[in-house]
Amino acid sequence: MATTTCSADQLAPLFGSNTTNATAAAAYICNQLTAVSDKFTDTTYAVDSTYLLFSAYLVFSMQLGFAMLCAGSVRAKNTMNIMLTNVLDAAAGGLFYYLFGFAFAFGSPSNPFIGRHFFALNSVPNETYDYSFFLYQWTFAIAAAGITSGSIAERTQFVAYLIYSSFLTGFVYPVVSHWFWSSDGWASASNSDHLLFGSGVIDFAGSGVVHMVGGIAGLYGALIEGPRIGRFDHEGRAMALRGHSASLVVLGTFLLWFGWYGFNPGSFTKILSPYTSGQYYGQWSAVGRTAVTTTLAGCTAALTTLFGKRIISGHWNVTDVCNGLLGGFAAITSGCSVVEPWAALICGFVSAIVLVSCNKLAERAKFDDPLEAAQLHGGCGAWGIIFTALFATEKYVNEVYPGVPGRGYGLFMGGGGKLLGAHLIQIIVIIAWVSATMGPLFFLLHKLNLLRISPDDEMAGMDLTRHGGFAYAYEDESSGRDRNGVKMDPANIF
After folding, report:
1. Are 327 and 359 spatial neighbours (Cβ–Cβ below 8 Å)?
2. Is residue 310 within 8 Å of residue 358, measured between CB atoms?
3. How far apart are CA 125 and CA 150, in angstroms?
């Protein structure tokens, strides 16, 4: 960080020949100016660190949103199970990201594929990374794990959750974030010495790094497990297995919306950075613009989904609207900082179409994802990567990623096809990497009978069979009877 310098030798002659002990006076003034300059430097560090910590707290609050959304989207007999998995995504992810993940992601200096320093935060803090940066990146890692847990809900053994969550947050996700976010990554927009196609990949807050990774991992988990019992009848027709609480779905959606203001604007990691000193416009303006584009994309996607599903099904469905909103957020996450607000409307509109189309395709393929996580985060995340390559503006790209003249930007904005080429490569390598890592892991768990629970346990519900009781007080557990004294059969009350 640049600081103001003052030299007594340079200042003393300016006092003139009549000044007594000019050198001492100059030294005193310089000392005072240096002290003031240091205070401003300290304040800048403190403001930026506080901003990043606050953003980390916002992103972490998304875990509560995930928990509520997941709980509302599953049947009541599996509520305790899905809530516990959300807690353990954060807990197991915290340990494994601390021990391995952060080092694999940001352990510079390193090679273009994987980091190799800062295991267990050794040598942190340093001039590049402070503890606040680790905390912020950990919240992203557990968000990816939370996405996957939704795809395999209501039928997965508890040990499988622990294994996949640890592997995803400790290795699979960190390697991808190294590729696209570390200054050493082979496709990073911050790697100014070796920019892929002269532009690097602009995945600002992780439509690919976070959402596609979590969504594709969930895709493999759900494919290998197979659909839930009763999701498709004997003739292959889709049967609705509705979540038990639309109220929890809406609550979770609003919490995720709130947390997304840390997810996207917080990805600047700093706020007190002027583009031109003394001007009203600086990085704080870009932070605000990012919040606006995030909002507009989500709102447009929600309304598009509302009316689209009304035409298709004849109903105003609140769950569909919530998923559409989140699909818009997942899509805008890549380009939120480098597109105009009007472009965010296009992003949200198309993301709703992508989500509805992916859900139709999943139904025809007899693919069962209770939270539509693979379709939402994988499909809309991929669209967001392409959207950024089409609509990123030259001005905003150069502000957010400075120091590289002639860097590629959006195809539709006159920037040529370099950025689009880099982003197509990103989609391909993320699919390939997650397929090569999470696919075999889920297959191995399946072969070892560690992945899916038994049909009897699935029918009865995991709350009763695996967690010792229900999330809700449907009955007096000591007597096994409901409030009216009637004996209850757990398999039939859900």
Report:
1. no
2. no
3. 35
Instruction: Residue 391: name the closest of 342, 343, 440, 325 by CA.
Output: 343
- Residue 484 carries which DSSP code? T
**Per-residue pLDDT, 279:** 84
Q: How many Å apart are CA 376 and CA 378, to the nearest integer? A: 6
Q: What is the pTM of this model?
A: 0.90
Tell me the pLDDT tens digit for each residue of 437-462.
999 999 999 999 999 999 999 999 99
Could you tell me how many residues make up the chain? Answer: 494
Q: With bands split at pLDDT 50, 70 and 90, how would you rate the model's confidence at 491?
A: very low
- For the cut 60, the answer to whether the pLDDT of residue 494 exceeds it is no
Ramachandran angles phi, psi of 76, nearest 5°? -60, -30
Helix 418-447 vs helix 158-167: crossing angle, to nearest 10: 140
Give me the residues paired with residue 201 across strands: 188
Alpha helices in 314-454 (DSSP H): 318-332, 341-364, 373, 380-391, 394-400, 418-447
Contact partners, residue 90, CB within 8 Å, separation at least 6: 60, 63, 142
The phi, psi pair for 452, rounded to 5°, reads -105, 145
Tokens standing for residue 318: 């609140």
Quote the DSSP letter at residue 282: B
Describe the crossing of helices 246-263 and 283-313 by its angle, rounded to 10 degrees: 150
Which pair of structure tokens corresponds to residue 401? Answer: 């990623």
- CA 105 from centre of chain: 15
**Residues 44/2, Cβ–Cβ less than 8 Å:** no
134 and 121 Cβ atoms separated by less than 8 Å: yes
What gap in Å lies between CA 324 and CA 376, rounded to an integer? 8
- What is the rounded CA–CA span in Å between residue 387 and residue 344? 9
- Residue by residue, what is the 3-state secondary structure of 340-366? CHHHHHHHHHHHHHHHHHHHHHHHHCC
For residue 454, the tally of other CB atoms under 10 A from its CB is 12
Asked if the model's pLDDT at residue 29 lies above 80, the reply is: no
pLDDT at 312 over 50: yes
For 237-264, the pLDDT digits (tens) are: 888 889 999 999 999 999 999 999 999 9
Residue whose entry in the numeric block shows the structure tokens 């939402």? 376
Q: How far apart are CA 200 and CA 156, in angstroms?
A: 38
Q: How many CB atoms lie within 10 A of CB 89?
A: 29
CB atoms within 10 A of CB 280: 8
How far is it, in rounded angstroms, from Cα 177 to Cα 187? Answer: 10
Q: Give pLDDT, residue 493.
A: 43
